[in-house]
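During the second half of the funding period, the structural biology subgroup turned its attention to how the target accommodates small molecules. The most pressing case was 2-acetamido-2-deoxy-beta-D-glucopyranose, which had performed well in the primary screen but for which no bound structure existed. We therefore specified the complex as follows and requested a full 3D prediction, including the ligand pose.
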Amino acid sequence: MLGIVHKLVSVLVFGTPTALQTTSGDIYGGKTLAGITNFTVVPGIFIQDDPSFNSSGYDLLQDSFGLIDKSPNRWKNLEAHVTQLNKEADAHTTYKLIYIARHGEGFHNLAQSIYGTPAWDCRWSLLTTDGNITWGPDALLDSTGISQAEAVNRAWKEQIKDGVPLPQTLYSSPLRRSASTLNITWHDILLNRGHVPRIKENFRESIGLHTCDQRSNISVIRKTYPGWQIDPSFPFHDPLWDPTYQETDTLIGRRVRQELENLFAEDPSTFLSITCHSGTISGFFLAIGHRMIGVQTGGFVPVLVKATNCPTATMQPISGGQSATAPACTADSTSL
Ligand SMILES: *[C@@H]1O[C@H](CO)[C@@H](O)[C@H](O)[C@H]1NC(C)=O
Ligand SMILES: *[C@@H]1O[C@H](CO)[C@@H](O)[C@H](O)[C@H]1NC(C)=O
Ligand SMILES: *[C@@H]1O[C@H](CO)[C@@H](O)[C@H](O)[C@H]1NC(C)=O
Ligand SMILES: *[C@@H]1O[C@H](CO)[C@@H](O)[C@H](O)[C@H]1NC(C)=O
Ligand SMILES: *[C@@H]1O[C@H](CO)[C@@H](O)[C@H](O)[C@H]1NC(C)=O
């Protein structure tokens, strides 16, 4: 079935410009590609991709999202470049520019900053509240997190003046701190024009142990984000969260790579955004071979990704990394 879809789309991509504007292709020459065997980062576009770049203290919201080209035409140049890459790509190759975003600060981040990471990991993250702050299940944005998302919204509006290519599809983790960040970021830019965000289970945070990462049931999600698209296969209750075990970084990397393969097989969009979590973003970097960089709450990183399903392509598998249990508390971490 996917093979047939792939063939149809390939025909459209090499067809006339009118054919490109059908729902199967996209206006930037993007296409769907099933059975991806290799993802790589296209270097030389964003400064944060450069292995020698020191991102400590760097705020890409204030620097055209890290785009190296600083000319007034920078976004039009980028759009033309990506379109050309897609139009010249063979039937086995496609390019997508992915804006991967981290949610704004949530009550769990606040609690972690109050108690410190050792005490958070061994004790507080396993509970839902300290009697004052509640972070589980499914932590909400706190007021700092809302302000951070509003700042991201303003930063997009600044770049829109210079023609930044907007995401054609908006993806979200099912956790409320991410979905609400997506909403605040895009409500008066894209959601008001009929864009419907797609919620994907596999873009959620590291699964297990921390109650902040246990998701709400479907009826809460539907009520909070009316009309948003939820996969029909999504179980009503969270079937994945476990109070004893947590996914490791490598397990998240594998899960995110799998979801990216699904996304590339289904979505011909060239520009898209994913609003998710620090663990998901590290998994994304692992999945596509991007260097690891820290992304602050309310931050995001654009990455130009090349994908191929060429039969001879291979990619380093992500292996190892069994699920982990919570660290034991030491005298130090329980002192609070
Ligand atoms: C990156 O910059 C920070 C502060 O500007 C500095 O403390 C740190 O040593 C730098 N790291 C490297 C690897 O140069
Ligand atoms: C309760 O939490 C808030 C942050 O939400 C903090 O400002 C306040 O100091 C806390 N109160 C107590 C009694 O710990
Ligand atoms: C879904 O979750 C909400 C909030 O926890 C709860 O009030 C509601 O009863 C749940 N629905 C079902 C059918 O379990
Ligand atoms: C989205 O954000 C806007 C602006 O903050 C708010 O008015 C609206 O209620 C939010 N909608 C959802 C579904 O969260
Ligand atoms: C695929 O990915 C790896 C990184 O795992 C890279 O070194 C390799 O050159 C890529 N390309 C192909 C066509 O396999």
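Two results from this model are relevant to the next phase. The beta strands are 38-41, 93-102, 169-172, 198-199, 229-230, 271-276, 300-308. The pocket of 2-acetamido-2-deoxy-beta-D-glucopyranose (ligand 5) is lined by residues 38, 40, 289, 308, 313-316 (CB under 6 Å).
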